[in-house]
Amino acid sequence: MLELQRTIAKPVSLSGTGLHTGTSCTITFKPAPDNHGIKFVRVDLGGNPEIPATVDYVVDLSRGTTLAVGEAKVHTVEHVLAAIVGLQIDNIIIEIDGIEPPVGDGSAMPFVEKLLEAGFVTQDTPKDYLVIDQEVMYHDEENGIDIVALPLNDYRITIMVDYQNPALGSQHTGMFNLEKEFVKEFAPARTFCFLSEVEMLADQGLIKGGNIDNAVVIVDHDLDKEGLKRLKGKLKLPEDVSVTHEGFLSHNKLRFKNEPVRHKLLDMLGDLALIGAPIKAQILAARPGHRANVEFAKKIRALYQQKKLVKKYQFVKKEGVVFDANAIQRILPHRYPFLLVDKIIDLELDKRVVGVKSVTINEPFFQGHFPGQPIMPGVLIVEAMAQVSGIMVLNSFIDPDNHLVYFMSINNAKFRKPVVPGDQLVMEAELISKKSKYFSIKAAAYVDGTLVAEAEFMGAIIDKENKKQDS
Questions:
Q1: Is residue 144 located within the same domain as residue 271?
Q2: Which member of 20, 75, 290, 403 is catalytic?
Q3: Residue 300 to residue 273: CA distance in whole angstroms
Q4: Are residues 241 and 285 in the same domain?
Q5: Residue 249 in 3-state DSSP?
Q6: Fewest CB atoms within 10 Å of the CB: 77, 93, 296, 410?
Q7: Is residue 309 part of a domain?
Q8: Do 9 and 201 touch, CB atoms closer than 8 A?
Q9: d(Cα 96, Cα 72) in Å, to the nearest integer?
Q10: What is the pTM of this model?
Q11: Cα 179 to Cα 407: distance, rounded to the nearest angstrom
C-alpha cells in the first residue's frame, strides 16, 4: 500500500445520465492539495456548496448512498468513491453540475478510466492510515447481515451474498491486493437488481436512467414469451433481450461468473470511503448493503476520530490510559486545586467515558471537611463527574481549544457512601442526548466497585470568545 498521499495530475470530465433521477450532468475531477480529502462541489448551485465525502453527511440510503449539506445533495456516490479509493487517491475535488453522477455502464469503470487518464501526483504528506487494532463488528439480526473488521497490516475485503434465489444462489469473492486486483477484477462489475424490483421501480417512475446495458437483471419470477414481450414494451427493452439459461435478463454476457457479488464488494469499497481515511484491516461481510455499509463505516469513523483525538492530546502512549493528567490539562481549563480527574481510562466518543480520581489526604478540602474525620464533599464528587463528562462532551462536539462546558442543571443527585482518603474514585458518564450545543449526561461514581454517588447533568458548550465579550 502507498505511503504518501496522492491526487490526480490534471482535470478530467465525464458526462451522462443519472441512474435514478435520469438527469444529465457532467462530473469533473480536479487535483486537490495535501490533506484536502474527497469533496463534492455542486457547481450548478449558488455559492458552489461543498459536500465532504464522509458518513457525517449521509442523508439517504434508499436506492444508493446520498450525501448532502443543507439543500445541496449528490445521489448515488458509491461508484465514484469506489473508483477514487480503489486507485488510492486521497485528495480530490469532484465538481458536479447536477444531482447525480452519470451511471455509465453501471460499474465504476468509466470513472476509473477517466482518473487513469488524468494520471497521479505523489504528494509530500504521509497517508493518514487508520490501522484497525481491535475487532469491530456490525450485526443486523433481522436481515442476516454481519460485517467485521479484523486487524491486518493491509486492506482486504471478503464478501458473501445469498438471496435464496436460484439465478443468483450463493456467491462469494475477495479482494486481497487493491493495487493489482481493483481495476481488472472489480471496477468493471455492474450493479444488479431483481426483475420484480425493476418493475416496481419503473411503475413508481424511478430508475429513469436505468437500462439493460447498465445493470445485471436477475429474473426472480416466471417469465414466458408473452410475459417477456409485455416486459419489453413496458421497460422499452431492445428486441434481442432474452432470459439466459443462468436466469439473467440480458443481451450482453456477464463480465464475471460472480459479477453480482463483485459489485457488492465495489459498493462496499465506495461506502467505506466515507470513513474519511484509508484503512488497514481485513473486512469480512455477509449479505451487506448500503445501509449496513454506512452503519459500519460510522463505527469505523468514530474509532478514527477517537484515535486522532488521543494522538492530539496524549503524547506518550500508556497501557490502560487514554488520557493522563498532562493530556487532561490540554483539554480542560481547570487547574489546582480544582482539577478533580487524574486520568481517563476508557472513551467512546458520543457515548461514554470513564475517569479516575485518586483521593489522598493531601487534598486541600480535607483541612475543613472535616477536621479529624476527612470526607470528600459531595459537591466535589459531582464536580469530578462533571469534569470527566466534559472531556467527552467537548471532544464529541467541537474543538475544545476554543470552547468551555457550562452545566445548566444537576438532577437526581444521590450520595450512597462517604469517600475518604485512600479511595480511588472511578467515574462513568454516558451521553444521553445532544442537540446543537446542548447535552444531557448520566454519571455515576464507584469505589472498589461500590456505587458511592450518581447524578444527571444538563449543559451547554460555550464559545470562549463570546464569553469574554459577555464579561
A1: yes
A2: 290
A3: 11
A4: yes
A5: strand
A6: 410
A7: no
A8: no
A9: 11
A10: 0.82
A11: 51
- For residue 67, the domain's CATH number is 3.30.230.20
Q: Tell me if 194 sits within 8 A of 260, measured CB to CB.
A: no
Name the nearest CA neighbour of 396 among 436, 357, 427, 343: 436
Cα separation, 467 vs 424, whole angstroms: 35
Q: Indicate the SS3 state at residue 354.
A: strand
Q: Which tens digits make up the pLDDT trace of 118-161?
A: 999 999 999 999 999 999 999 999 999 999 999 999 999 999 99
Q: DSSP per residue over 171-183, as a string?
A: EEEEE--HHHHII
pLDDT for 159 equals 97
Q: Do 101 and 250 lie in a common domain?
A: no
Is the domain of 235 the same as that of 325?
A: no
**Span 380-408, average pLDDT:** 84
State whether residue 287 is helix, strand or coil.
coil
Instruction: Evaluate whether 214 touches 191 at the Cβ level (below 8 Å).
Output: yes
Q: Range of 36's domain?
A: 4-124
Please say whether the beta carbons of 440 and 432 come within 8 A.
yes
Cell 450545543 belongs to: 437
Q: CA angle, corner 356, sides to 350 and 357, nearest 5?
A: 135
Name the residue with higher pLDDT: 167 or 183: 183
Q: What is the pLDDT of residue 353?
A: 96
pLDDT for res 468: 42
Structural domains counted in the chain: 3
Nearest CA to 443 out of 432, 431, 454 is that of 454
User: Is 290 one of the catalytic residues?
Assistant: yes
Using CA of residue 290, residue 147, residue 266, residue 172, what is the dihedral sign? negative
79 labelled binding-site residue: yes
> In degrees rounded to 5, what are phi and psi of residue 235?
-100, 5
Higher pLDDT among residues 187 and 233, named by residue: 187
pLDDT at 208: 57
Please indicate if the annotation marks 267 as binding a ligand.
yes
Q: Which residue has the higher pLDDT, 327 or 212?
A: 327
Whichever domain contains 196, its CATH number is 3.30.1700.10
Assign 453 a pLDDT band (cuts: 50, 70, 90).
Answer: very high
Cβ-based neighbour number of residue 30 at 10 Å: 16
Cell of 73: 445533495
Catalytic residue among 36, 172, 334, 369: 369
Residue pair 380/448 in contact (Cβ under 8 Å)? The answer is no
Contact status, residue 209 vs residue 104, Cβ threshold 8 Å: no
Rg (CA), the chain: 27
- The answer to whether 88 touches 178, Cβ cutoff 8 Å, is yes
Whether residues 253 and 338 share a domain: the answer is no
